[in-house]
Amino acid sequence: MGSVSKKKPWFLKSGFRSSWDIAAREATNWLMPYEALQIARMAHEIWEQNPNSRVFSLGQSPAWIVKALEKEAALKKLDYKTGYIPFSGSFFLPADVLEQNKDLYCYSSWDGRTNLCERINRHRMDPYRKVLEKIGMSPESIIDHFTKNNATTTITEIMGQSGGGAASFLYVLFSWAKDDGAEASLREAVNVRLYNNSQLDLPFSLRIEGFDPIPCNFHPIDSDLRDTLMNCRDNVRIVPYYPSEKWLKEPGSPEGDPRILQNTEEVLGEAVVITNFAPNLYDKWRMYGRAAVKKFLPRDAPKAVSSKRSTLASVIGETPFVR
After folding, report:
1. pLDDT digit string (tens) for 185-215?
2. Is residue 159 in a domain?
3. pLDDT tens-digit profile of 131-159?
4. Higher pLDDT, 282 or 311
5. Is there a domain that residue 320 lies in?
6. pLDDT of residue 161
7. What total of structural domains would you count in the chain?
8. Is 306 part of any domain?
């Protein structure tokens, strides 16, 4: 009697995974399922650790983490506030500049690592403060939210080697609070959540010349995912590029590709469903792709939902860039 061959499931056939991965990478041009799952898990951790907090993305790098959190809140029908802060670059310059222009710069350091921070003049600072006011990120708004709700405002950021972006924004925020005599109150009301692949869940303080230390919390991130999020192309931007050189003008809308953004949101939405309602499917979804896992999802698992607010909306205008 001849041998009977067992037919493999369609999603395990030779070449399925590689061909699906290639097609998905071409379609999204950026985010793969295993990356989306990491992002969804990071977002879920934020909600678990900060269930009553408002959560903001500092610039583009952590924006898709906040987007995943937004999707989780929609799935669970939670009134969870999220937002996106237009901010790009940093004010950090080579240390030898300090010797030439001592009055224009101040030192800042992360856990003893010293950098140089430019003192931004009020001509550029004042317009940017108006931008922050419109999205509810002025010191007054942050402190008011804390006082009324006993809940912090969480600022998320993905750090490179210097941490210059986070340090620069916190310099802007705390300079404003210091002008208003509210530096201590702001320090209590804000939660700085930083992702860096060289630190593991350790609290540190940012030290900026002229300010008391600013407490920060470091959380781990896979180095490849960090690079993906920090170096994403303009066609997947959901937060506009907005360095200090552009602060005299209001930020425009990010010019992301609608097709790529839609595909990315779909992948991320499914990752959020799996993370929250079917975590046993993690490996199958990661290995065999989205179509295969749809066969295994529990019938009562909710479908991935689109965000209530379009990420292509302008940050500034009648509708602030905040859920």
Report:
1. 999 999 999 998 765 455 577 777 778 888 8
2. yes
3. 999 999 999 999 999 999 999 999 999 98
4. 282
5. no
6. 66
7. 1
8. no
Q: Which residues are registered as beta bridge partners of 82?
A: 55
Is the Cβ–Cβ distance between 191 and 154 less than 8 Å? yes
Task: Name the most confidently modeled range: 72-86, 138-152, 224-238, 306-320.
Answer: 138-152
Residue type for position 190: V
Tokens of 242: 């907005």
Q: Render 259-322 in DSSP notation, one character per residue.
A: HHHHHHHHHHHHHHHHHHH-GGGHHHHHHH-HHHHTTTS-TTSPPP---SS-TTS-SSSSS-SB
According to DSSP, the β-strands at 214-219 and 203-208 are antiparallel
Residue 171: give the domain boundaries.
42-254
Residue 10, in any domain of the structure: no
- DSSP structure string for 196-258: -TT--S-EEEEEETTS--EEEEEE---HHHHHHHHT--GGG-SS----GGGTTS--------H
Please report, as a single letter, which amino acid is at residue 22: I
Give the predicted TM-score (pTM) of the model: 0.78
Q: Where are the alpha helices (DSSP H) in 135-241?
A: 139-149, 164-179, 183-189, 223-230
> DSSP label at 117?
E
Residue 50: Cβ within 10 Å count: 18
**Radius of gyration, alpha carbons of the chain:** 22
The conformational region for residue 289 under phi > 0 = left, psi -120 to 50 = alpha, else beta, is left
Please tell me the least confidently modeled range out of 7-11, 73-77, 211-215, 314-318: 314-318
d(CA 178, CA 176): 5
